[in-house]
Amino acid sequence: MPEKKYTVTIQANQKTMLLLQGVVLLAIGILLCCSVSLTKIVNVVLGVALLLGGLVNLLACFMEHKSVIRTEGVFASALIAMGILCFIQNLFPVDALIRMFIIVVGAIALLDGLLGLLPAVNRKKVPTLVEALVGAVLLTLGLCLWFISDFAHYASLVLGIGFILLSILLFVSVYILSSGKRIK
User: Fold this and answer.
1) Which of 104, 98, 97, 95 is nearest to 139 (CA)?
2) In 3D, which of 89, 109, 104, 91 has the Cα closest to residue 145?
3) Prediction pTM value
4) pLDDT digits (tens, 9 = 90+) for 72-124
5) How far is residue 9's CA from residue 176's CA, in Å, rounded to a whole number?
6) Which residues are registered as beta bridge partners of 182?
7) CA within 20 to 30 Å of 51's CA: 32, 129, 132, 140, which one?
8) Contact yes or no for 84/116 (Cβ under 8 A)
9) What is the maximal distance between C-alpha atoms in the chain?
10) H helices of 34-154, where?
11) CB-CB contact of 83 with 50 (8 Å)
């Protein structure tokens, strides 16, 4: 039986969204690779948000009850304290989040790739094997980042390179899909 060929095209708004996602991933990837202190940036933003949230809750509590020594006031105090800790002690561990993100994405890709190889799933073998292989590499790399303390310093660089590669993949796929080339 002859193999069918399909022409896949994308609409202009989908193309724009994919290109925008690619640009955002590329920018974040470059920032992660340039050793921008992501932990400090995230903690400052989170600290400001927690402080503002706490102050707004404190003000709302006072406006409603004419006192801040209420449940809402105590909750607002906790938000303010967490906001201050974000500034003082970098409360949010961005590096640990990056390492765990790589581990989880790798494990999910590996599991999906292995499940895709089952006869009942009926997926193409080559892309499924590539997915399983990429998942195994990411899982191994993430575990190395988690357990080897000297290697853990490169977590943001690894994630930055991954985002840059993903943005390039998005740009190439938009180019291929918008040109109307046939895909098997």
Assistant:
1) 104
2) 104
3) 0.64
4) 889 999 999 999 998 888 877 878 888 899 999 999 989 998 998 888 888 88
5) 9
6) 7
7) 32
8) no
9) 80
10) 38-65, 71-89, 94-116, 125-147
11) yes
